[in-house]
Design brief:
This protein is α+β, with helices and mostly antiparallel strands. The protein has helices at about 15-25, 25-40, 50-60; strands at about 85-90, 95-105, 110, 120-125, 125-135, 150-165, 170, 180-185, 190-195, 210-215, 225-230, 240-245. α2 packs antiparallel against α3.
Length: about 260
Amino acid sequence: MGATENGSGGRKTPSEKNKRRQKRLYPVQILHETCKQVFADCGPHIVPSPENVQKLASVLDGITQEDVGLRPNMPFFDSARAPVITYMHIADCNTFSIGIFCLPPNSTIPLHDHPGMTVFSKLLFGTMHIKAYDWAEDLHPGVTDPKGGSMKLAKLKVNQEFTSPCKPSILYPNDGGNMHHFTAKTACAVLDVLGPPYSDQNGCHCQYYYEIPYEIHSSEVQEEEYAWLGEREKPEELCVVGVAYTGQRISTKRR
């Protein structure tokens, strides 16, 4: 028998088979399977390895609005629909969830947290302002809570507008802006991957916050870098309506 290029008698190696299979899969299916691998050994407060974080971010970066069946001129994004936000559930399990938030112009998702979670977000289209905080660990002597112990000091992590196309954002349990607030400047679609998903049983309860400016008289600290955050009930003005996902289908069967 003559020699072959791959040196295995013409048979494909497992790596080659996997690459060919990946080419046959829809991008959303690849995202789902990557999530299964990345979050397989994770849970609340357990962050994927840097290699796996980069792997998932790379896959997410390749997802387009066409892959998930969305267009800016769809009814979900009509300005007359604000402040109603539409949520499309794609998939979930005990270790992760995938879904899309569809925001018409001027709609907002109030300040909320992601306790013990690693979250990947991809802005599929539109312009959005994001304001995000992490809890402040560098408390200064003499700092007092204006509400007598019911608030916590947070440090501003992000406060800017993002326009698609842009790289996925990643937040961690204690870094990256775990508590954030979204404001749609135009019609926006945000693809979210949460690991693990929200669950009261696992201590991953979604908590909403209000903020009070932090006043400090110091030449070393800028006031706008900090704010007092207090817990609040889910805002009455927040209206999220679930609809069926109509984009590329995925299979949740083991392969």
